[in-house]
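Our working data are protein records whose layout never changes between entries. Instead of coordinates, the fold is spelled out as a row of discrete tokens. Here is such a record, shown just as it appears in the course material:
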Amino acid sequence: MKEKPENMSSEKTGRIKTHELFLTGGLLAIVGGFLDAYTYILRGGVFANAQTGNVVLLAINIAKGAFYQAGFHIIPILAFALGVYITEIIKTKFTKVAFIKWENFVILIEIVLLFTVGFIPKDVPPGIVNVTVSFICSIQVNSFRKITGLPYASTMCTGNIRNCFENLYKYTHQKNIQALLSCIKYIGIILLFILGAFIGALLSKNIGCHCIWFCDIILITVFLIFVIRQD
């Protein structure tokens, strides 16, 4: 009997993989939006998720001669890059481990690191927190790339908005019902990201640094979904 390829899509197997469920993708989008608001409001005005913003702010500060401020923006960029590299190592090492899936291990790393960040006072240099949060966002976006077979990002919106309106065009001009369903899914992810940013802004202003533990509640929920719904 021919063995089924490990990377066979969820559409071909007839069952959506747990880490590609809209539910888990939506929860991760809430975390992504929350962390962006959290780092911008409480940790030095830095976007921990979308590195394009940090690259632009880095260039602007260099042009102004504000090299100290520029350093605040290069740190999360490097941390994000490191996260991508580490994720690939985790995939390689844990793919062959039977007792835990590598996606579950990534969620556990996020939970532990975010729990630790919640104890770091606001007067500590923001670079320490931004490195950690950028690393977390990096391993998340690099580990969870699809919902129901659709490419998406849980820590930024640009690609999701592009894919949303691309599918909207296919529906309006080609009457492709599947494209309409895909468009609706992208709208849902975008709205959940906005919801996460709204909650992040609200809790950051009213609770302070400890509010990041809200993300741990979401991630623990995701982890439990992964454990209960075994692929």
In short: Confidence is low (pLDDT under 50) at residues 1-11. The radius of gyration is 19 Å. Residues 177-206 form the longest helix (30 residues). The chain has one domain: 18-228.
